[in-house]
Design goal:
By secondary structure, the protein is an all-alpha fold. It contains six helices and no strands. The radius of gyration is 15 Å and the shape is elongated. InterPro entries: SKP1/BTB/POZ_sf (IPR011333).
Length: 127
């Protein structure tokens, strides 16, 4: 997709764009903001990104990010031990449920392209 000149410098700007898209019912603007929200996710910013998804009702993106997070044990461990996650018990619960489902051999609901990892995007390996 061609995103033109839209390139928010911070997630605060992206949240403002999401707010505008929501208030004025502009799905194209929302899609662009979601694109930037999904870019360059790391263990250091994944909690912030997931809470933004929650705040703006971006469930599909939230699920994709969570799926990718739970398929990368190292990334999952880093996030689980981060002080940020302690203030979001529902998020921790969702992560644990997905991780437990993976341990039980259940396939994930959907595979996303973007997800967190320590250095690069996580990719689930075929089970």
């Amino acid at each position: 997709a061609q995103w033109g000149r839209f390139n928010p410098r911070t997630q605060e700007i992206n949240k403002d764009v999401l707010r505008l898209a929501q208030n004025f019912k502009l799905p194209g603007l929302r899609d662009r903001a979601m694109h930037w929200l999904a870019k360059d996710i790391t263990t250091g910013n994944v909690v912030e990104r997931l809470t933004i998804c929650e705040d703006f009702g971006l469930q599909e993106l939230r699920e994709r990010i969570l799926q990718q997070l739970t398929c990368n044990k190292q990334a999952l461990a880093e996030v689980a031990h981060s002080p940020q996650i302690m203030t979001y018990p529902k998020l921790m619960q969702a992560m644990l449920q997905l991780a437990a489902a993976r341990q039980d051999g259940q396939p994930p609901k959907k595979r996303g392209e973007d997800g967190p990892s320590p250095k690069k995007r996580a990719r689930c390996k075929a089970q």
